């Protein structure tokens, strides 16, 4: 990928990280993990804004190409997170069966 393409992929990662850490922060407010989630929610927001700045001033044809890459990047992230959820569900089911 060129630098604009890399910025788009990074923007997807930072945006998803921002939302994940922001939503997880209250869940992990107690204990050792609270600092991690608070710091990452803030850092990911700053990184997300940097990515947006890097994409300013591009040619309209570039934006059309990047929009396709943006959709592909979100699709890939959705595939990965769906797989994580499937693996967690399997682990929970196996743990439940073993406990019975």
Describe this structure in words.
The chain has three helices and no strands. The mean pLDDT is about 90. It starts with a helix and ends with a helix. It is mainly α and about 100 residues long. α1 (about 5-25) packs antiparallel against α2 and α1 (about 5-25) packs parallel to α3 (about 60-100).
What's the short story on this structure?
The protein is 86% helix and 0% strand. With 100 residues, it is mainly alpha-helical.
Which key phrases capture this entry?
mainly alpha, 100 residues, flat
What are the SSEs and their pairings?
Layout: H1 3-27, H2 34-54, H3 60-99
> Count the helices. How many?
3
Q: Which class of secondary structure composition applies to the elements?
A: mainly alpha
What is the share of helical residues? Answer: over 70%
Q: Please report which band the strand proportion falls in: under 5%, 5-15%, 15-25%, 25-35%, 35-45% or over 45%.
A: under 5%
Q: State the order of secondary-structure elements, H for helix, E for strand.
A: HHH
Largest sheet: none
* Terminus-to-terminus distance: 51 Å
Oligomer: single chain
What is the general shape? flat
Give the tally of β-strands: 0
Cα radius of gyration in angstroms: 18 Å
Low-confidence stretches: none
Would you tell me the overall average pLDDT? 89
């Amino acid at each position: 990928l060129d630098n604009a393409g890399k910025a788009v992929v990074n923007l997807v990662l930072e945006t998803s990280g921002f939302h994940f850490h922001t939503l997880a922060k209250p869940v992990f407010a107690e204990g050792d993990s609270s600092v991690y989630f608070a710091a990452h929610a803030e850092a990911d927001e700053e990184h997300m804004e940097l990515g947006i700045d890097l994409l300013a001033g591009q040619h309209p044809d570039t934006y059309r190409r990047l929009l396709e890459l943006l959709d592909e990047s979100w699709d890939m992230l959705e595939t990965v997170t769906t797989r994580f959820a499937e693996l967690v569900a399997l682990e929970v089911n196996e743990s439940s069966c073993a406990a019975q």
